[in-house]
User: Fold these one by one.
Assistant:
Number 1:
Amino acid sequence: MKHSIFETLHIISKGPSDQQLYQNAFDSMLEGDAIVFTQAGVYSLLSKDFDFPEQLIYALSIDVDARGLSQKVDKRSTLISDAQFVALCCQYKKTISWF
Amino acid sequence: MQSSSLTEPSLLATNMKKNILLIVRNPPFANSSNAETLDIAFACAAFDLPVSLLFLNDGILQLANNQQSNLLEKKDLTNNFRALAMYDIEDYFVIAEDAQRYQLTQNDLILNCKIINKDKMAALIRTFDTVINL
């Protein structure tokens, strides 16, 4: 199967304590996928338990800032605006929401 | 729009038919999302869109037979899920690990599901154009 680099965008809006949801989401990922953390999902970027997957990781900056995390989030993630979020959704072949 | 043929309704109908995967992750009686997933399935069927269902995690419990929803005075979705076949929706998947965890075999399920291993799930999902996860 031929893969493009923009396959599936996984949108995770629950915090890392929802382990089953995270397990399901990560089991659904392949190369070429990416993750966007929204809402409480952005707390994953703080959690030491959170194993960073190899996929690209984005987080909605408005949700990061609103929670007072802007200085603390892991540098491996890219903070994005709402407009960039929309652009990513268009860029990838499909999106899957995990909530 | 460069190509005027794209606006032809007949072409729209044939070219844009996307296959859809609905993921059911909740046990019965938990909330309304399983009923809403069914609504989506029937709506897709009305438009002849190819639909498949993946019962993931606690979603497999929705398929357990011998449910007695009358005891809880709640709506039983068993017959609704059985009705999917009448709309030519017959492509169902469950995860072997979930079945094992809840000690469910094919004989315990109301639908005739394909059982796949968890490590095949990502590849399955990739084959669909659209995934709806409620």
Number 2:
Amino acid sequence: MGLYLLPAALFLAVLALYPFIELIHMSVSQVSSDNIFGDWPFIGTAGVQAVAVTADFREAAVNSLIYVGLVVGVGLGGGLAAALVLWRGGPLSGFTLALMVFSWALPGLINGVDWRFLLDPRGMVDTILSVARVAPVYWLVEGRLPLVSVALVNAWTVVPFATLVFRAALLDMPGEVLAAADVDGARPRQTLRYIVLPLLRPTILVLTILSLLYAFKSFDFIYIMTFGGPGTASTTLPFLSYRLAFEIYKFSDGAAVAVITLGLTILMALVYLRSVHREERA
Amino acid sequence: MNELDQGSSLLDRGLSRRQLLKGAAAGAGSLALAGSLAEFLAACGGNTTTTTTSKLDANTAGNLEVWHYSSQQDVKTIQDYSALFSQKYPKVNVKLTYVEFSEMPKRAIAAAGAKQGPDVFIYGGNEVNAMYKAGVFKSADSYWQSFADKGQFPDGVITRFNNKVYGIKGYVNLTGLWYNQDILDAVGVAVPKTIDDLNNAFAKIKAAGKVPIALTGQPTDQGDWTAFPWLSGYGFSYKNPESSAIEQAFALVSDWSKKGYLPKESVQWGQAETFNRWAVGDVAFMENGNWNIGPASRNVGSKFKYGTTPLPAASGKQGIFLGGEALWIGGFSKVPDIAWAYMQETLLSKEGLLITLKESGGIPARHDMSGLPDVTNNPLLAAYTSEVKDHGAEYPPEGGAAIAAQAVIAQNWSAVIAGQKSPSQAAKDASDGVKANYKA
């Protein structure tokens, strides 16, 4: 049995464990382009502490919270709504699901470029709004809108996945329970609130954790659509880590931000594992 | 090595950056002081006067990999360089590898970690210092010292590390002000010479329902490149990042943005998008480079009349970065002799520079091409050659050691245009950020 696990263990060790150890090593060392291939002087947690108190980090942390909240909230809310609409099946339902899977399967790079054009003041979204005499909205320019816009686009790609999972859970729901509610005269809203949502609880929990992890490490949409800007208005922690490490070659600072981000991600993964464990025991 | 040490090491190179700057300006400026056609033709007796590595000849065989970032639009130039090289070395197989501009330094450094990489880099970004330190480049000093034509190149186009030659730019690129003559004629304004002229023209153009100007507001090195002429005009430099100087430039561009002279979405535009927006035909001006001469000819054509003029300056202190693609020998090249031969036959040769000039408008740095009619008689280039002479500034600034400070400037430039920060706040943040990230 143990032997069969060896390839997977080796795979993980090479592609996950080794980079992880190197990341930790870099975050507690002084590394720049000067010594990236040389010796890394040990500085302990001083680097992580120094990065964590900067204004850039604080701004990126707040941006990350807003971003994650929107991606998870809108992604799961939209996914649940779509799954309820598509629950009963039919040709239109199948076609819609196929379209959703297509948009989900598109690389973030393609989706990001498409949405960047769509959200341009001369793009399709503002052109349609102008028909209703709405002034151009600077989706990727003004105030908090760039961060919100990118998060909503990212949430848009979460919706199909959430829809598929929710729909699978709905199709698996015991028909007799729903029939009993129907016989008892429950209205659709009551059925949803008192029957469907409680039965979906394990699915919601798993999807929430997975979406949190996905949103927290999201990078591609920000890179393509705003490059963290204007200024630093849409810079999240993963993007800050990228900028520090690969734009200005402060590798140890970038690693420090990544380690903090990773710590938060691991914390969420532990919650996920614990919830899965509980469900399995139940 | 910390940033203070980086600054010291620059001074330790024994070559003052100011001298380099003057060298660049003086050398490339000679282009503007054109020579005669006869001089050009006499000097253009072919590449035979240019020495190549003696060990190589037409029977030299091998493989040569070249990394470049020329997109589909201008990859023909790179292909033409290789064709030029292949005429002399037909048995050398040249492999051109496209690497996206911003990815080039990362991929090069990663490759260097594995002791790999191409034989030649064509790269003119601001990350050369980091790439050098990571061992991406091999010194070309020994080849350069025996290069018969080395006297043809101004010092400012040569990049040295530890007093050794590494990269050489065969041509220079810089930004100027492009204008749509049709719009100016319709509105009744002359080509602006000063910032006041520019502001007055903008007001009239806006009132006529046209877009006054397009420029790059990205929070990237392209944004920094675009911002520097305005900032330096008010006295900013990376060594002297006074908040008051930065604030004046930021107030100017913030005013343009607030009044609708500059589209706010320019914070998303790189230089290519800026050109594309201007080429639509409803934008009066754009700040952009001489490399657009070819694309303008192809994409604008006769759609509207256009021209170029030097960027208006707030003062004589204005600096305009002298860009252009340099050639570098890969740090792990197994065929450095062939790599040097490629450099010699392409961007260091008259024939190669002629390709660049005709296809993309790059201004040849060679002294013996200063009288070339394509340079002296091209009205679009005249603005740029005068800028080189009067305002040419070293790029990357401070030998690439100010890269983190450049990022700070670009972010605040972008924030001001978008209205995310007031000019005073952005100036303070930029000044503090530059001081923290660059100590000369």
Number 3:
Amino acid sequence: MDDLKLLRDFGARLEHEPPATLVRQRERLLRGRPARRWWATWWTAGLVAVATAVAVVVPTMLLAGGRPVAVPPAGARNVDVGGAMNILLVGSDSVEGENVAYGPQRARQPDGGGRRADSIIILHVPEDRGAVTAVSVPRDSIVRIQACAGDPARVDMINSTYDQDGGLTCLRQTLQKLTGLTFKHTIEVDFTGFKGVVDALGGVQLTLSRPVDDRRAKLKLPAGKVTLDGEAALGWMRSRAQGDGSDIARIKRQAQLLRAMAKKAQSSALDQNRLKALLSEVRESVRTDLGLEEMAGLAAQLTEARISTTVVPWQPARTDRNRVEWRQPQARELFESLK
Amino acid sequence: MILQPATRGADAELVNASWTEPEAFAELFDRYAGMLYRYVSKRLGPEPAEDLVGETFLVAFSRRRSYDLAYPDARPWLFGILTKLISRHHRSEAARYRALLRAPVEHTIESPADRVAAGVSAQAVRGELAGALASLSAKDRDVLLLIAWGDLTYVEVAQALGIPVGTVRSRLNRGRRKVRAALGDTNPMAEEE
């Protein structure tokens, strides 16, 4: 019997008839704003990839090789990672040199200065740890912002709270006020700092689907498996010559880089010196109020959990069609379900 | 489900009309949404199919100005977009085939080759077929399934994926060879083209 014929018959058995609800997709098309919706879907996927990678990568790197470095042995301290909780996760990409401009004192502050909140995610971890929900907050959400750290009350994009003096504190406060949720912990990841982490790891291996030649980023790489040092990895992640040059493409590359790092951290047996260097670099690029043990405990729980992802329900903002505003009452209902 | 209103002719005319009159694009949806849905449902199952069909049309709509109006038939274009979207699900696709591979097969006859020789139904060899599909590279699988399940011609597949026809042939041959090998056919004379 003809193999193609067999395949066709096999396909016919797997086939489903279009349901009546397919008409919803037609309406989706007619309602318009296709580019935005398309964009939003990608964005969520990218954000969650980053979120999970961070939750898993960081402890993996810290505990690489199962060596308890500067970490008390498990069980030595009673760690509270139980109960339902919400965690605020912010990924930022600081512009190099800006920290210097703010002066060393500012740079040492926990909130740092001059970063952009690229990704804002509310990670909801239910008590049974069965299904984690990652809610991404569009960074261009127009919201009511309270006065905070010297900045006046205003209606503005949510990530403006982070960019300004208050940093994470103001973003956290604003989001708590808006959502009615309490964030038990915060995790901040600065992708710029990952340059040092990559070097401490001795480079990472990436598989590129096509060669890269970006003169502006001074980056020239062949297609296929390449090993990148920190500088090259960061350049590759940031390069606008990659993909369609969009934000989504960039977020995807961030996730890819994180995965490559996790792989390297797991695979390479690190000597003491390298591990020390790695730890200090990680401390530079990840800021969190979670202890090392808590992070490791949480990551272990999260790797088992099913992670569902969603975006705060939104619509084009009435004041500026290029921004978004939260759609009510859907957004309120979503937050209510996370309490 | 698929309506073919006589008011307008080729797909290209609809795409062209949608430049100034976006509603015209909905007619393209009416023509092909059902077809695309059936195709995705075979590869990924019914759950993601609805959304993927919707996304395909949204992407197509946003790129309607770059559509080459010299091609009257929009199917290769739509299948090309859909294939890209499906590629994001390649893990779940392979997992789906592997699950079918594990599903119990009702009859146990001598060897897969005998079954083929005896002209037994695809149902009897679905484990072998599913295993072969799971083992194919994503590129080979795209080509094989666009032809077997999407009913596109070689030229249309080349258009859809933006690759030369010769590449379509070589990927198809490689895919079919693996399928035949899974079915237990090792006869080199069975090579086609």
